[in-house]
Design a protein that fits this description.
82% helix, 7 helices, binds zinc ion, mainly alpha, elongated
């Protein structure tokens, strides 16, 4: 006959149907191993039921909070180290970039770009000049400009009021 250790917990809790319960009891009468296991299970259950369900002590709560805080802080420290490493890598890359720029074959494209820029006519076309002038004139009439002028005026007025008070002290 098979051992009944997988049914002992249900047997102890009274959850087995009567036929299975009879089988377990028959086996327990013949098998010292399963009897010992049932005794151990019964004792464990009794100990667990006697444990007081009280609130954790202040010392225990303090330790619990400390352990939670240290667990939360640890990834932050790791992230700070990671960012420090990244900035170190960025500094190395910047240094390498400077060294590359100082080399002649890299500065050559920059010179060619400058020559392209210098080939653009210095004087703007007529339509460009008109467009810039239109933009300048329309700028004075925008609500943003009016608001800015109002703020400057009110600030100046405030300062004008504040200065005599400052002098009197
Ligand atoms: Zn057994």
């Amino acid at each position: 006959m098979e051992h009944v250790s997988n049914r002992l917990s249900a047997y102890l809790d009274g959850q087995l149907p009567s036929d299975l319960r009879a089988q377990v009891e028959t086996h327990l009468a013949e098998c010292p191993d399963c009897s010992r296991e049932l005794t151990a299970l019964r004792q464990t259950s009794a100990v667990l039921q006697q444990l007081p369900l009280t609130a954790p002590s202040p010392v225990l709560l303090e330790r619990l909070h400390a352990s939670i805080e240290s667990a939360v802080r640890r990834p932050v420290i790791a992230m700070e180290r990671f960012i420090g490493l990244l900035s170190g890598i960025a500094a190395c890359l910047a240094l390498v970039g400077c060294l590359l720029l100082m080399q002649p074959h890299v500065t050559a494209p920059i010179v060619s770009t400058a020559s392209v820029i210098s080939s653009v006519p210095a004087a703007p076309a007529v339509w460009e000049r008109d467009a810039v002038q239109l933009a300048d004139e329309s700028l004075d009439n925008t609500p943003e400009t009016a608001m800015g002028q109002w703020m400057i005026a009110s600030l100046s007025a405030h300062n004008a009021v504040a200065i005599p008070g400052g002098k009197s002290q």
